[in-house]
Design goal:
five-stranded parallel beta sheet, Beta-galactosidase, Chain A, domain 5, 7-stranded beta/alpha barrel, 14 helices, single chain, alpha+beta, 13-stranded antiparallel beta sheet
């Protein structure tokens, strides 16, 4: 029996905004350039490319000569460009209009620069939900790709030879063809003998015609990201394959596919994150969920505030789309940065804040206090805003979980730490993430030394951030909200109740504490509101910290953990953003300053800077003790 094996070799590449320039250059020199150059030498080899708009735009600016070679390969119909979202978003989790806008943006870019409109769409991380069929087809996409194990999870059985065949899937009457991707075979080709592997595929084929999509390039082949790949060698070997093995493109195959079976695929994410459901990553990683919540918030702002202004709306939407990058939807590595890498998150927040600023143009912004479910957890958050500051406060802990300074488009609460972090700031392994807040309240034993403090506080204390505060007063005119934490005798220092008053003044925040002993005996303890802030980095090029004592300022080390003695205020000089944060109290304090880092391939990735002031308190039964802070940002 005559048999034909149709092979679609494919390559993919993307880096999120915030990735270091050297990563782009290394990917180009070690991956894209040798791949495209090798294709030019071996005309029998056909390929499908999906490079995100971020990668293509970088090549256009830095290596425009490659576009000429790509145009030649396209004219020879040796290469097919696949469409998708311009900024490589995880499509299931972004709003419908953003799905369509991002896909159309990349389609327009490809058509403008290469004269070809893509017919098929690549899904970042193979993240799928059935309702993607509608937006994909409405954008002119006739086919897409999912991994073979996603076919298996959908109950689709492989042929007698163990290989899957393309199928069609449907939603609300819309149809799209789905090609199976044999990822394991792509990895085998780099680790074994390509000709032998193709021979085995041909020998095992039972049907007259077999269709296989095999990833051989880009980030589709894990473990091959260091050093230059020898595409000349592998394409030279593949060119010797049996004539019955045809290297083709998905576009060419699609024209001749008939009588395909229909199937439905469950929502799953095949990105190496244990095949989790696309939204599960948000639930498991609070920093990713925070960026997602901000994205939904800004999307709503744009649609509500910019009706009828198409130019500003388009500009704001493109900033929003930059923040929808799939880079914040995986943890990342040294080769492919992700959520763990502070510059990637900073770039996402910068774009979101740029979009928010566009919604405020052309009108005076009125300072406000509002209450709504910002982070989509079923409970309202308290939002204090003026023309320069956004302050977001949660009921749990009554601390700040987002602090935006709009003149610098910077979120100083973009903090992240290992969920299982020990008290040493940079020790331990990373298995999850938690958002750290500002003004997280601790009650420590009276003999606690500053050197005993770390990211998890100190032994024997009461961690009020995990307790839910109650709101006793909201004054929208004065932009003031009062939270209360009642006594809880079962906890350490449980006879202490806390009243916590937040107020937004002119480009500054104030928080006033009133602690009351409701127990029968005098209680001695240390009160410490822990404050995390995230800067571009540490060292004199990024951050300088000054302790203020009696109007004099003393520079303190910003490189390692230090103890601060008898200060009235701290001044954080953000060198890169040219901003100054002043943290001032109405009582002098000691405290501990340190940086939080996460391990990343043998090195430490800076995440945030934490300061824990310490106030010794002695409270008799029924008595109160007060302290207040102001936090002001200037540029």
């Amino acid at each position: 029996m005559d048999k034909r094996i149709n092979l679609v070799l494919c390559a993919q590449g993307h880096f999120p905004s915030g990735t270091a320039e050297e990563n782009f250059e290394a990917f180009y020199n070690n991956e894209i350039k040798p791949l495209v150059s090798a294709l030019d030498k071996y005309p029998r080899i056909n390929m499908a490319f999906h490079y995100s708009g971020v990668i293509l735009y970088w090549i256009e600016r830095h290596h425009p000569e490659l576009f000429m070679l790509l145009e030649d390969l396209l004219s020879r119909k040796q290469v097919e460009f696949l469409g998708g979202g311009f900024y490589n978003p995880i499509l299931p989790i972004i709003p419908m209009t953003d799905k369509i806008g991002q896909i159309e943006m990349l389609t327009t870019y490809l058509r403008k620069h290469f004269g070809k409109k893509p017919q098929g769409c690549w899904l970042p991380a193979m993240a799928w939900e059935q309702n993607l069929v509608g937006p994909l087809t409405s954008c002119g996409m006739s086919y897409t790709f999912l991994e073979d194990h996603q076919f298996s999870a959908a109950g689709i059985k492989p042929g007698e030879d163990g290989n899957y065949f393309p199928c069609i899937t449907e939603d609300q009457g819309k149809l799209i063809t789905v090609f199976p991707v044999a990822g394991a075979i792509g990895r085998k080709m780099w680790n074994g003998n390509p000709l032998k592997i193709l021979s085995e595929i041909y020998s095992s084929a039972k049907a007259p015609e077999t269709v296989m999509v095999i990833p051989v390039g880009g980030s589709l082949v894990p473990g091959k990201n260091e050093g230059r790949r020898d595409y000349d060698k592998i394409f030279g070997e593949l060119s010797k394959a049996d004539p019955q093995i045809e290297f083709t493109t998905a576009a060419r195959l699609f024209k001749n596919l008939t009588a395909l079976k229909k199937a439905y695929f469950s929502g799953v994410w095949s990105s190496g994150e244990n095949g989790m459901y696309p939204r599960q990553f948000l639930s498991d990683h609070s920093e990713a969920d925070g960026i997602y919540a901000k994205m939904i918030y800004v999307h709503t702002l744009i649609n509500n505030q910019l009706r009828g202004d198409k130019t500003r709306k388009r500009t704001a939407m493109e900033e929003l789309w930059k923040a929808q990058d799939s880079g914040v939807s995986h943890l990342g590595s040294s080769a492919y940065p992700g959520l763990l890498h502070s510059p990637v998150r900073k770039a996402a927040y910068r774009s979101l804040l740029e979009a928010e600023k566009i919604t405020r143009e052309k009108k005076k912004f009125t300072p406000s206090l509002s209450v709504f479910d910002f982070d989509l957890d079923g409970e309202g958050e308290y939002i204090l805003q003026d023309d320069k500051l956004n302050c977001f406060i949660k009921m749990k802990g009554a601390g700040i979980f987002e602090l935006d300074y709009l003149p610098c488009t910077w979120n100083y609460m973009d903090t992240l730490a290992p969920a299982d972090s020990p008290t040493a700031a940079t020790a331990g392994s990373f298995s999850g993430s938690e958002r750290r807040c500002a003004f997280v309240d601790w009650l420590f034993p009276e003999n606690t030394a500053p050197e005993a403090l770390g990211p998890n506080g100190a032994k024997g204390g009461r961690y009020c951030s995990v307790e839910k505060y109650e709101v006793s007063e909201i004054d929208r005119v004065r932009r003031k909200v009062i939270f209360g934490l009642p006594p809880k005798p079962a906890l350490p220092f449980g006879d202490i109740g806390i009243e916590k008053t937040w107020q937004l003044k002119k480009n500054s925040l104030s928080v006033e504490y009133a602690l009351k002993n409701s127990g029968p005996k005098e209680i001695n303890f240390i009160f410490s509101p822990s404050i995390d802030l995230s800067f571009p980095g540490t060292g004199d090029a990024f951050l300088r910290v000054l302790a203020v004592r009696d109007e004099e300022k003393e520079s303190i080390s910003a490189e390692e953990a230090v103890t601060v003695k008898n200060a009235k205020a701290l001044e954080f000089q953000d060198i890169k953003n040219e901003a100054i944060i002043n943290l001032e109290a109405n009582r002098n304090f000691d405290g501990r300053l340190f940086h939080l880092c996460t391990p990343d391939c043998g090195k430490e990735e800076y995440q945030s800077t934490c300061f824990i002031p310490m106030f010794p308190v002695s409270l008799e039964s029924g008595k109160n003790w007060k302290v207040s802070f102001s936090l002001k940002i200037t540029s």
